[in-house]
């Protein structure tokens, strides 16, 4: 592989374990659907049982006060109910604005994601293991406080002495309610350094909206670069996102919710490990998770001010719903249709609008049960071969409520509070290079004056950028955690990586 990059100065400021934590998230759950490409690191099928039962340890809930802050300027209110119903499927279209006013003309977009799914036919709606069961409402507790934890036995080999935990923790809804969230915490072997191990919070790509699509069900084998990060003496944590593995709707491609999970699982690691974990955090995500990592950098200072987010890494980040489906549906299929329908389904349930009948055709509505019960492979199989004009109503992207949601969930709502590394494959057809370049140069550098290093990996596709990016990502994270100066490409003109 050939890795190219641009350097300069920017204007930006500055034992193996799984955990279940509480995070400030979004309440309710209408089912399951999500869209994001998975790479070779994903080894196990969606909905796989946990295997041999392992002891479950109840961890005392922290008595620290709840720390919540303001939402990004474009953050939208969520549906207020504590348990969200399935999306509305009324067939009366919501009024649209002028078709000539196209939200797809926003400065950034997201490419289609067609990487192999976790599973195309896994029984994602099968009952979850008892570890994930939780009674609602939750007793009071701050975001990130641990509800229960469990050592993960077997699975992917770890460096000597490392331990992995499955965790269930608290998050908080936009209306102030507590919601449970699940994930994993992986701890290096040996004594912690003074001040504790730094934390790397991994944000995964799309797996689906059903509970059985939660990555923590299969252990830690889906976390990339895990061995290298542990050998550098970092705790590695990973959220399933709200609604995957725990009650609640999965707010797919809702940046605020995803970011809260990324930060709250780091809080859960600190609650679980005590003084062995520091407050220094790096957010690292791929595809859907790239969006999550960027939003985590945006909200960290207001949402989790006790954490010091020292680095943000986004590999092939999703930047806008309008890149998942054509704004003008036509007679040809689109390989990302399943992802787009999944996002529309999740947003209708999360925000309470738009009604699915205002954006989807009757033919698309008839297939939505697979969105609620299947993983991303099954959803793609149902939708991707159907012409888009048989799935999406004309003017679907101009429905006023949806236009606002598209804008609110594009990265660039506020400056990122840490140096940023963006990694992009030059042959990515899912999140094209031009889309990511526009995001970096127009939004992050010029619009927000963030400090960004932009690296292109020659010849790599969407999953390939993650598979081939370890030699760039891991040393860059290590440098930021060591408080070394962060190089930036933002002051350079021309093609990034040139």
Question: Helix and strand layout, with pairings?
Answer:
Elements lengths: L1 E4 L10 E8 L32 E2 L88 E6 L11 E10 L5 E10 L9 E7 L22 H6 L3 E5 L15 H19 L3 E10 L1 H16 L4 E8 L21 H15 L10 H5 L1 H6 L2 H8 L16 H9 L11 E6 L7 H15 L4 E7 L3 H6 L2 H12 L17
Parallel strand pairs: 2-5, 7-8, 7-9, 9-10, 10-11, 11-12
Antiparallel strand pairs: 1-12, 2-4, 2-6, 3-4, 4-5, 5-6, 6-8
Helix pairs in contact: 2-3, 4-7
Structure description:
This protein is of the alpha/beta class. Helices cover about 25% and strands about 15% of the residues. The chain contains eleven helices and twelve strands. It has helices at about 225-230, 255-275, 290-305, 335-350, 360-365, 370-375, 375-385, 400-410, 435-445, 460-465, 470-480; strands spanning about 1-5, 15-25, 55, 145-150, 165-170, 180-185, 195-205, 235-240, 275-285, 310-315, 420-425, 450-460. Strands 1, 2, 3, 4, 5, 6, 7, 8, 9, 10, 11 and 12 form a twelve-stranded mixed beta sheet that branches. Strand 7 (about 195-205), helix 1 (about 225-230) and strand 8 form a beta-alpha-beta unit. It starts with a strand and ends in a 17-residue tail after the last helix. About 60% of the residues are buried.
